[in-house]
Amino acid sequence: MSLELYVDGKWIASTSTERIDVVNPTTEEPIGSVPAGAAEDVDMAVAAARRALGKWSQTAPDTRAEFVSRLADELERRQDDITDIVVAEVGTPRRVARWAQVGLGIVDLREAVTAAKDFPWEEPLRNSLIVREPVGVIGCITPWNYPLHQITAKIGAALVAGCTVVVKASEVAPFTAHALAKAVEAVGIPAGVFNMVHGYGPIVGEAIAVHPDIDMVSFTGSNSVGKRVLELAAGTVKRVSVELGGKSAAVLLDDLDVEEFAKAVPHTVRACYMNGGQSCNAQTRMLVPRSRLSEAEKLAAKAVAAYAPGDPTSGDSKLGPMVTAAQRERVLGYIRAGVKEGAKLVAGSVDAPARTGFFVQPTVFSEVDPDSTIAQEEIFGPVLSIIAYDTTEQAIDIANGTIFGIAGAVWSADPERAKSVARRLRATQIEVNGGKFNGAAPFGGFKQSGHGREGGAFGLEEFVEIKSLQL
Known about the structure:
The chain has helices spanning 39-58, 61-77, 79-90, 94-117, 149-161, 175-187, 201-210, 223-233, 258-273, 293-304, 325-340, 373-376, 392-399, 415-423, 456-462, and strands spanning 5-7, 10-12, 19-23, 30-35, 122-125, 128-134, 137-141, 164-168, 194-196, 216-220, 239-243, 249-252, 285-289, 344-347, 363-366, 383-389, 407-411, 429-432, 443-444, 450-451, 453-454, 464-470. By secondary structure, the protein is α/β, with parallel strands linked by helices. The protein has two domains: 5-244 and 449-470, Aldehyde Dehydrogenase, Chain A, domain 1 (3-Layer(aba) Sandwich); 249-439, Aldehyde Dehydrogenase, Chain A, domain 2 (3-Layer(aba) Sandwich), CATH 3.40.309.10. The strands form six sheets. Strands 14-15-16-13-12-17-18 form a seven-stranded mixed β-sheet. Strands 9-8-7-10-11-20 form a six-stranded mixed β-sheet, sandwiched between helices. It starts with a strand and ends with a strand.
Protein backbone atom coordinates (compact mmCIF):
# COMPACT_ATOMS: atom_id res chain seq x y z
CA MET A 1 0.00 0.00 0.00
CA SER A 2 1.46 3.37 -1.05
CA LEU A 3 1.25 6.09 1.60
CA GLU A 4 1.33 9.22 -0.55
CA LEU A 5 -1.28 11.62 0.80
CA TYR A 6 -0.36 13.77 3.80
CA VAL A 7 -3.41 14.14 6.03
CA ASP A 8 -3.67 14.96 9.73
CA GLY A 9 0.09 14.74 10.20
CA LYS A 10 0.33 11.24 8.73
CA TRP A 11 1.10 9.66 5.36
CA ILE A 12 -1.94 7.70 4.23
CA ALA A 13 -3.14 5.83 1.17
CA SER A 14 -5.68 7.26 -1.22
CA THR A 15 -9.14 5.72 -1.34
CA SER A 16 -8.61 5.55 -5.12
CA THR A 17 -6.58 2.82 -6.81
CA GLU A 18 -6.09 4.81 -10.01
CA ARG A 19 -2.60 6.18 -10.70
CA ILE A 20 -1.24 9.18 -12.58
CA ASP A 21 2.09 8.76 -14.38
CA VAL A 22 4.57 11.61 -14.10
CA VAL A 23 6.81 12.07 -17.15
CA ASN A 24 10.23 13.72 -17.37
CA PRO A 25 9.81 16.29 -20.18
CA THR A 26 13.47 16.05 -21.19
CA THR A 27 13.69 12.29 -21.54
CA GLU A 28 9.98 11.62 -22.22
CA GLU A 29 10.27 8.73 -19.74
CA PRO A 30 8.02 8.11 -16.72
CA ILE A 31 9.69 8.98 -13.42
CA GLY A 32 6.98 7.70 -11.09
CA SER A 33 3.31 8.01 -10.31
CA VAL A 34 0.92 9.42 -7.74
CA PRO A 35 -2.64 8.57 -6.78
CA ALA A 36 -5.51 9.97 -8.78
CA GLY A 37 -7.21 11.00 -5.56
CA ALA A 38 -10.95 10.94 -4.92
CA ALA A 39 -13.48 13.25 -3.31
CA GLU A 40 -13.34 11.02 -0.24
CA ASP A 41 -9.65 11.91 0.15
CA VAL A 42 -10.60 15.59 0.14
CA ASP A 43 -13.23 14.91 2.80
CA MET A 44 -10.61 13.34 5.07
CA ALA A 45 -8.17 16.22 4.53
CA VAL A 46 -10.81 18.89 5.15
CA ALA A 47 -12.01 17.13 8.30
CA ALA A 48 -8.43 17.10 9.60
CA ALA A 49 -7.95 20.78 8.74
CA ARG A 50 -11.25 21.66 10.43
CA ARG A 51 -10.26 19.80 13.62
CA ALA A 52 -6.89 21.55 13.72
CA LEU A 53 -8.31 25.01 13.05
CA GLY A 54 -9.60 25.70 16.55
CA LYS A 55 -6.24 25.37 18.29
CA TRP A 56 -4.07 26.68 15.44
CA SER A 57 -6.19 29.82 14.96
CA GLN A 58 -5.80 30.64 18.65
CA THR A 59 -2.04 30.11 18.67
CA ALA A 60 -0.11 33.37 18.99
CA PRO A 61 0.90 34.87 15.61
CA ASP A 62 4.58 34.89 16.54
CA THR A 63 4.40 31.17 17.34
CA ARG A 64 2.73 30.44 13.99
CA ALA A 65 5.37 32.55 12.27
CA GLU A 66 8.11 30.59 14.03
CA PHE A 67 6.80 27.33 12.54
CA VAL A 68 6.80 28.92 9.07
CA SER A 69 10.33 30.24 9.63
CA ARG A 70 11.48 26.73 10.56
CA LEU A 71 9.86 25.41 7.39
CA ALA A 72 11.83 27.96 5.36
CA ASP A 73 15.03 26.82 7.06
CA GLU A 74 14.21 23.18 6.31
CA LEU A 75 13.55 23.91 2.63
CA GLU A 76 16.84 25.75 2.46
CA ARG A 77 18.61 22.67 3.81
CA ARG A 78 16.88 20.56 1.15
CA GLN A 79 17.25 23.12 -1.65
CA ASP A 80 19.56 21.08 -3.88
CA ASP A 81 17.45 17.92 -3.63
CA ILE A 82 14.20 19.77 -4.34
CA THR A 83 15.86 21.55 -7.26
CA ASP A 84 16.65 18.16 -8.79
CA ILE A 85 12.99 17.20 -8.46
CA VAL A 86 11.82 20.38 -10.18
CA VAL A 87 14.27 19.88 -13.03
CA ALA A 88 13.01 16.33 -13.53
CA GLU A 89 9.31 17.25 -13.35
CA VAL A 90 9.15 20.62 -15.10
CA GLY A 91 12.34 20.80 -17.15
CA THR A 92 13.47 24.15 -15.79
CA PRO A 93 17.24 24.57 -16.28
CA ARG A 94 18.93 23.71 -13.03
CA ARG A 95 20.59 27.02 -12.28
CA VAL A 96 17.26 28.81 -12.84
CA ALA A 97 15.31 26.20 -10.90
CA ARG A 98 17.51 26.59 -7.83
CA TRP A 99 16.87 30.31 -7.35
CA ALA A 100 13.59 30.94 -9.20
CA GLN A 101 11.75 27.73 -8.36
CA VAL A 102 13.04 26.70 -4.95
CA GLY A 103 14.64 29.97 -3.89
CA LEU A 104 11.47 31.98 -4.41
CA GLY A 105 9.53 29.37 -2.47
CA ILE A 106 11.78 30.03 0.51
CA VAL A 107 11.41 33.80 0.00
CA ASP A 108 7.61 33.43 0.14
CA LEU A 109 7.78 31.90 3.59
CA ARG A 110 10.30 34.39 4.93
CA GLU A 111 8.29 37.36 3.67
CA ALA A 112 5.17 36.02 5.40
CA VAL A 113 7.15 35.74 8.63
CA THR A 114 8.48 39.29 8.26
CA ALA A 115 5.02 40.67 7.49
CA ALA A 116 3.59 39.07 10.64
CA LYS A 117 5.84 41.14 12.90
CA ASP A 118 4.17 44.47 12.12
CA PHE A 119 0.79 43.19 10.99
CA PRO A 120 -2.15 44.99 12.65
CA TRP A 121 -3.76 41.93 14.24
CA GLU A 122 -5.69 44.27 16.54
CA GLU A 123 -6.03 48.05 16.45
CA PRO A 124 -8.36 50.63 18.03
CA LEU A 125 -10.78 52.69 15.96
CA ARG A 126 -12.73 55.23 18.06
CA ASN A 127 -14.81 53.09 20.41
CA SER A 128 -14.12 49.86 18.50
CA LEU A 129 -11.37 47.29 18.53
CA ILE A 130 -10.63 46.08 14.99
CA VAL A 131 -9.61 42.44 15.04
CA ARG A 132 -8.09 40.47 12.17
CA GLU A 133 -8.62 36.76 12.49
CA PRO A 134 -8.11 33.76 10.17
CA VAL A 135 -10.57 33.06 7.38
CA GLY A 136 -10.58 29.36 8.30
CA VAL A 137 -9.81 26.27 6.21
CA ILE A 138 -8.15 27.17 2.90
CA GLY A 139 -8.19 25.03 -0.22
CA CYS A 140 -5.03 25.71 -2.23
CA ILE A 141 -5.13 24.60 -5.88
CA THR A 142 -1.79 25.14 -7.58
CA PRO A 143 -0.22 24.75 -11.06
CA TRP A 144 2.79 22.91 -12.43
CA ASN A 145 4.91 25.79 -13.71
CA TYR A 146 6.30 26.78 -10.27
CA PRO A 147 5.39 23.71 -8.21
CA LEU A 148 6.94 24.91 -4.93
CA HIS A 149 6.70 28.70 -5.21
CA GLN A 150 3.01 28.61 -6.10
CA ILE A 151 2.24 26.58 -2.97
CA THR A 152 4.45 28.47 -0.52
CA ALA A 153 3.09 31.82 -1.76
CA LYS A 154 -0.25 30.62 -0.40
CA ILE A 155 0.54 28.51 2.65
CA GLY A 156 3.16 30.83 4.14
CA ALA A 157 0.64 33.63 4.52
CA ALA A 158 -2.27 31.31 5.31
CA LEU A 159 -0.47 29.51 8.14
CA VAL A 160 0.87 32.73 9.66
CA ALA A 161 -2.67 34.15 9.52
CA GLY A 162 -3.90 31.16 11.56
CA CYS A 163 -5.61 29.25 8.78
CA THR A 164 -5.25 25.54 8.08
CA VAL A 165 -4.78 24.29 4.52
CA VAL A 166 -5.63 21.52 2.11
CA VAL A 167 -3.26 21.57 -0.87
CA LYS A 168 -3.98 20.07 -4.27
CA ALA A 169 -0.79 20.32 -6.32
CA SER A 170 -0.69 19.80 -10.07
CA GLU A 171 -0.70 16.17 -11.15
CA VAL A 172 1.90 17.12 -13.78
CA ALA A 173 4.52 18.05 -11.16
CA PRO A 174 3.44 16.49 -7.84
CA PHE A 175 6.75 15.31 -6.43
CA THR A 176 7.89 18.82 -5.48
CA ALA A 177 4.73 19.18 -3.37
CA HIS A 178 5.51 15.77 -1.88
CA ALA A 179 8.96 17.05 -0.88
CA LEU A 180 7.35 20.11 0.71
CA ALA A 181 5.06 17.88 2.77
CA LYS A 182 8.13 15.93 3.93
CA ALA A 183 9.65 19.21 5.12
CA VAL A 184 6.40 20.14 6.89
CA GLU A 185 6.53 16.80 8.69
CA ALA A 186 10.20 17.28 9.61
CA VAL A 187 9.65 20.64 11.33
CA GLY A 188 6.69 19.41 13.35
CA ILE A 189 3.90 21.65 12.12
CA PRO A 190 0.90 20.39 14.14
CA ALA A 191 -1.26 17.61 12.68
CA GLY A 192 -4.03 18.80 10.40
CA VAL A 193 -2.62 22.29 9.85
CA PHE A 194 -1.13 21.28 6.47
CA ASN A 195 -2.73 18.55 4.36
CA MET A 196 -1.94 17.44 0.80
CA VAL A 197 -4.06 15.43 -1.64
CA HIS A 198 -2.93 14.41 -5.14
CA GLY A 199 -5.28 14.06 -8.09
CA TYR A 200 -6.91 15.54 -11.16
CA GLY A 201 -8.50 18.97 -11.17
CA PRO A 202 -12.00 17.88 -12.24
CA ILE A 203 -12.14 15.48 -9.29
CA VAL A 204 -9.94 16.66 -6.42
CA GLY A 205 -9.90 20.34 -7.42
CA GLU A 206 -13.66 20.51 -7.85
CA ALA A 207 -14.22 18.65 -4.58
CA ILE A 208 -12.22 21.37 -2.86
CA ALA A 209 -14.09 24.18 -4.61
CA VAL A 210 -17.54 22.92 -3.61
CA HIS A 211 -16.71 21.61 -0.13
CA PRO A 212 -18.94 23.23 2.49
CA ASP A 213 -16.23 23.07 5.18
CA ILE A 214 -13.65 24.93 3.12
CA ASP A 215 -13.91 28.64 3.84
CA MET A 216 -11.75 29.95 1.01
CA VAL A 217 -10.12 28.73 -2.19
CA SER A 218 -6.81 30.18 -3.35
CA PHE A 219 -6.29 29.17 -6.98
CA THR A 220 -3.50 29.74 -9.48
CA GLY A 221 -3.83 28.45 -13.03
CA SER A 222 -5.54 28.98 -16.35
CA ASN A 223 -8.43 31.35 -16.97
CA SER A 224 -10.79 28.57 -18.01
CA VAL A 225 -10.20 26.57 -14.83
CA GLY A 226 -10.24 29.70 -12.69
CA LYS A 227 -13.70 30.57 -13.98
CA ARG A 228 -14.85 27.04 -13.18
CA VAL A 229 -13.53 27.36 -9.61
CA LEU A 230 -15.39 30.65 -9.19
CA GLU A 231 -18.61 29.06 -10.42
CA LEU A 232 -18.32 26.07 -8.10
CA ALA A 233 -17.33 28.13 -5.06
CA ALA A 234 -20.34 30.39 -5.50
CA GLY A 235 -22.59 27.62 -4.24
CA THR A 236 -21.24 28.03 -0.71
CA VAL A 237 -20.43 31.75 -1.04
CA LYS A 238 -16.83 31.10 -0.01
CA ARG A 239 -14.07 33.59 -0.62
CA VAL A 240 -11.98 32.92 -3.74
CA SER A 241 -8.62 34.36 -4.74
CA VAL A 242 -7.59 33.62 -8.32
CA GLU A 243 -4.32 34.35 -10.11
CA LEU A 244 -4.74 33.55 -13.78
CA GLY A 245 -3.11 34.21 -17.15
CA GLY A 246 -1.06 37.06 -18.51
CA LYS A 247 0.09 38.76 -21.70
CA SER A 248 2.56 41.23 -20.29
CA ALA A 249 4.01 44.06 -22.34
CA ALA A 250 7.45 45.64 -22.11
CA VAL A 251 7.20 49.22 -23.40
CA LEU A 252 10.47 50.64 -24.73
CA LEU A 253 10.01 54.40 -24.99
CA ASP A 254 11.39 56.57 -27.75
CA ASP A 255 13.98 58.42 -25.65
CA LEU A 256 16.28 55.44 -25.08
CA ASP A 257 19.75 55.88 -26.50
CA VAL A 258 21.51 53.10 -28.42
CA GLU A 259 23.15 51.65 -25.30
CA GLU A 260 19.95 51.73 -23.25
CA PHE A 261 17.95 50.17 -26.08
CA ALA A 262 20.60 47.45 -26.41
CA LYS A 263 20.09 46.67 -22.70
CA ALA A 264 16.28 46.71 -22.76
CA VAL A 265 15.80 44.32 -25.68
CA PRO A 266 17.80 41.31 -24.35
CA HIS A 267 16.38 41.93 -20.89
CA THR A 268 12.89 41.56 -22.37
CA VAL A 269 13.91 38.39 -24.22
CA ARG A 270 15.10 36.94 -20.91
CA ALA A 271 11.89 38.05 -19.17
CA CYS A 272 9.91 36.29 -21.91
CA TYR A 273 11.90 33.05 -21.93
CA MET A 274 12.26 32.56 -18.16
CA ASN A 275 11.12 29.02 -17.27
CA GLY A 276 10.62 28.34 -20.97
CA GLY A 277 8.07 31.15 -21.19
CA GLN A 278 5.84 29.09 -18.89
CA SER A 279 5.23 31.97 -16.48
CA CYS A 280 2.07 34.03 -16.08
CA ASN A 281 4.14 37.22 -15.82
CA ALA A 282 6.33 36.51 -18.89
CA GLN A 283 6.94 39.67 -20.92
CA THR A 284 5.70 38.21 -24.19
CA ARG A 285 5.03 41.49 -26.01
CA MET A 286 7.80 44.03 -26.68
CA LEU A 287 6.52 47.43 -27.82
CA VAL A 288 9.07 49.54 -29.68
CA PRO A 289 8.97 52.82 -31.67
CA ARG A 290 8.27 52.05 -35.32
CA SER A 291 11.50 53.77 -36.34
CA ARG A 292 13.50 51.28 -34.24
CA LEU A 293 11.75 48.10 -35.31
CA SER A 294 14.69 46.84 -37.38
CA GLU A 295 17.11 47.61 -34.54
CA ALA A 296 14.91 45.66 -32.11
CA GLU A 297 14.76 42.68 -34.47
CA LYS A 298 18.54 42.47 -34.75
CA LEU A 299 19.09 42.77 -31.01
CA ALA A 300 16.41 40.18 -30.24
CA ALA A 301 17.79 37.73 -32.80
CA LYS A 302 21.23 38.11 -31.25
CA ALA A 303 19.85 37.55 -27.75
CA VAL A 304 17.94 34.43 -28.82
CA ALA A 305 21.19 32.72 -29.81
CA ALA A 306 21.95 32.20 -26.11
CA TYR A 307 18.71 30.23 -25.62
CA ALA A 308 19.33 27.11 -27.66
CA PRO A 309 17.16 24.31 -26.26
CA GLY A 310 19.29 22.15 -24.02
CA ASP A 311 19.44 19.56 -21.27
CA PRO A 312 18.15 21.32 -18.12
CA THR A 313 20.52 19.32 -15.93
CA SER A 314 23.44 21.07 -17.65
CA GLY A 315 24.87 24.12 -15.94
CA ASP A 316 24.97 26.02 -19.23
CA SER A 317 21.39 25.47 -20.36
CA LYS A 318 19.01 28.46 -20.35
CA LEU A 319 16.01 26.92 -22.10
CA GLY A 320 14.57 23.55 -21.21
CA PRO A 321 11.60 21.67 -22.68
CA MET A 322 7.91 22.42 -22.42
CA VAL A 323 6.40 20.53 -19.52
CA THR A 324 4.34 18.04 -21.58
CA ALA A 325 3.87 16.91 -25.15
CA ALA A 326 0.48 18.63 -25.17
CA GLN A 327 2.06 21.91 -24.06
CA ARG A 328 4.67 21.62 -26.82
CA GLU A 329 1.92 21.17 -29.41
CA ARG A 330 0.00 24.11 -27.99
CA VAL A 331 3.03 26.39 -28.36
CA LEU A 332 3.81 25.14 -31.87
CA GLY A 333 0.18 25.77 -32.79
CA TYR A 334 0.53 29.41 -31.78
CA ILE A 335 3.77 29.77 -33.74
CA ARG A 336 2.02 28.42 -36.83
CA ALA A 337 -0.88 30.79 -36.21
CA GLY A 338 1.55 33.71 -36.08
CA VAL A 339 3.02 32.78 -39.45
CA LYS A 340 -0.44 32.23 -40.95
CA GLU A 341 -1.64 35.63 -39.73
CA GLY A 342 1.29 37.39 -41.39
CA ALA A 343 3.75 38.11 -38.59
CA LYS A 344 7.43 38.17 -39.53
CA LEU A 345 9.36 35.20 -38.10
CA VAL A 346 12.67 36.66 -36.93
CA ALA A 347 13.85 33.58 -35.06
CA GLY A 348 12.47 30.13 -34.32
CA SER A 349 10.57 27.50 -36.24
CA VAL A 350 7.09 26.09 -36.71
CA ASP A 351 8.60 22.63 -36.11
CA ALA A 352 10.00 21.09 -32.94
CA PRO A 353 13.73 20.32 -32.81
CA ALA A 354 14.64 16.82 -33.98
CA ARG A 355 15.54 15.48 -30.55
CA THR A 356 14.07 13.68 -27.58
CA GLY A 357 12.18 15.92 -25.20
CA PHE A 358 9.27 18.32 -25.45
CA PHE A 359 11.35 21.16 -26.88
CA VAL A 360 10.42 24.08 -29.08
CA GLN A 361 12.73 26.59 -30.70
CA PRO A 362 12.96 30.00 -28.99
CA THR A 363 10.86 32.22 -31.22
CA VAL A 364 10.65 35.93 -32.05
CA PHE A 365 8.00 37.50 -34.24
CA SER A 366 8.06 41.06 -35.54
CA GLU A 367 5.57 43.27 -37.34
CA VAL A 368 2.93 41.73 -35.10
CA ASP A 369 -0.61 43.07 -35.32
CA PRO A 370 -1.67 44.08 -31.77
CA ASP A 371 -5.03 42.37 -32.34
CA SER A 372 -3.61 39.11 -33.72
CA THR A 373 -3.85 35.78 -31.95
CA ILE A 374 -0.23 35.70 -30.78
CA ALA A 375 -0.53 39.24 -29.40
CA GLN A 376 -3.78 38.59 -27.53
CA GLU A 377 -3.69 35.04 -26.19
CA GLU A 378 -1.42 33.54 -23.55
CA ILE A 379 0.94 31.12 -25.30
CA PHE A 380 2.91 29.88 -22.27
CA GLY A 381 6.06 29.19 -24.25
CA PRO A 382 9.22 30.98 -25.46
CA VAL A 383 7.48 33.17 -28.04
CA LEU A 384 8.10 36.93 -28.14
CA SER A 385 6.02 39.33 -30.24
CA ILE A 386 7.61 42.65 -31.27
CA ILE A 387 4.94 45.29 -31.88
CA ALA A 388 5.62 48.71 -33.37
CA TYR A 389 3.92 51.90 -32.15
CA ASP A 390 3.90 55.51 -33.32
CA THR A 391 3.10 57.49 -30.15
CA THR A 392 3.36 56.94 -26.42
CA GLU A 393 -0.42 57.07 -26.14
CA GLN A 394 -0.69 54.31 -28.72
CA ALA A 395 1.89 52.24 -26.84
CA ILE A 396 -0.12 52.53 -23.63
CA ASP A 397 -3.32 51.57 -25.47
CA ILE A 398 -1.62 48.50 -26.99
CA ALA A 399 -0.11 47.46 -23.64
CA ASN A 400 -3.55 47.67 -22.02
CA GLY A 401 -5.34 46.17 -25.01
CA THR A 402 -5.74 42.58 -23.82
CA ILE A 403 -8.02 40.89 -21.30
CA PHE A 404 -4.99 40.36 -19.05
CA GLY A 405 -3.15 42.55 -16.57
CA ILE A 406 -0.63 40.83 -14.35
CA ALA A 407 2.77 42.36 -15.11
CA GLY A 408 4.75 44.52 -17.51
CA ALA A 409 7.77 46.76 -17.95
CA VAL A 410 8.63 50.31 -19.00
CA TRP A 411 12.02 51.52 -20.20
CA SER A 412 12.93 55.19 -20.56
CA ALA A 413 15.98 57.44 -20.33
CA ASP A 414 13.91 59.52 -17.91
CA PRO A 415 12.96 57.50 -14.78
CA GLU A 416 10.11 59.88 -13.97
CA ARG A 417 8.65 59.46 -17.45
CA ALA A 418 8.97 55.70 -17.08
CA LYS A 419 7.07 55.80 -13.77
CA SER A 420 4.42 58.03 -15.32
CA VAL A 421 3.78 55.50 -18.08
CA ALA A 422 3.96 52.60 -15.62
CA ARG A 423 1.18 54.17 -13.55
CA ARG A 424 -1.08 54.02 -16.60
CA LEU A 425 -0.56 50.33 -17.31
CA ARG A 426 -3.40 48.14 -16.04
CA ALA A 427 -1.28 45.46 -14.39
CA THR A 428 -0.02 44.65 -10.91
CA GLN A 429 3.77 44.46 -11.14
CA ILE A 430 5.57 46.80 -13.53
CA GLU A 431 9.36 46.73 -13.89
CA VAL A 432 10.80 50.21 -14.37
CA ASN A 433 14.12 50.20 -16.23
CA GLY A 434 14.77 46.61 -15.18
CA GLY A 435 13.79 46.98 -11.53
CA LYS A 436 14.43 43.88 -9.44
CA PHE A 437 11.86 41.46 -8.03
CA ASN A 438 10.62 42.28 -4.53
CA GLY A 439 9.09 39.39 -2.60
CA ALA A 440 7.27 41.76 -0.24
CA ALA A 441 5.48 43.56 -3.07
CA PRO A 442 1.95 42.51 -4.09
CA PHE A 443 1.53 40.04 -6.95
CA GLY A 444 -1.76 39.28 -8.66
CA GLY A 445 -3.99 40.38 -11.48
CA PHE A 446 -6.05 43.17 -12.97
CA LYS A 447 -8.93 42.34 -15.31
CA GLN A 448 -9.09 38.66 -16.28
CA SER A 449 -5.69 37.98 -14.75
CA GLY A 450 -7.63 37.54 -11.53
CA HIS A 451 -8.16 39.15 -8.16
CA GLY A 452 -6.46 38.88 -4.81
CA ARG A 453 -2.80 39.43 -4.00
CA GLU A 454 0.14 37.36 -2.83
CA GLY A 455 3.40 38.50 -1.24
CA GLY A 456 4.31 39.93 2.14
CA ALA A 457 1.64 41.79 4.10
CA PHE A 458 -0.56 41.99 0.99
CA GLY A 459 -0.71 38.19 0.87
CA LEU A 460 -1.38 38.01 4.59
CA GLU A 461 -4.41 40.29 4.18
CA GLU A 462 -6.01 37.72 1.85
CA PHE A 463 -6.30 35.17 4.63
CA VAL A 464 -7.86 37.26 7.40
CA GLU A 465 -11.40 38.32 8.17
CA ILE A 466 -11.98 41.70 9.81
CA LYS A 467 -14.36 42.11 12.72
CA SER A 468 -15.01 44.94 15.15
CA LEU A 469 -15.64 44.77 18.88
CA GLN A 470 -17.80 47.73 19.82
CA LEU A 471 -16.57 48.90 23.22
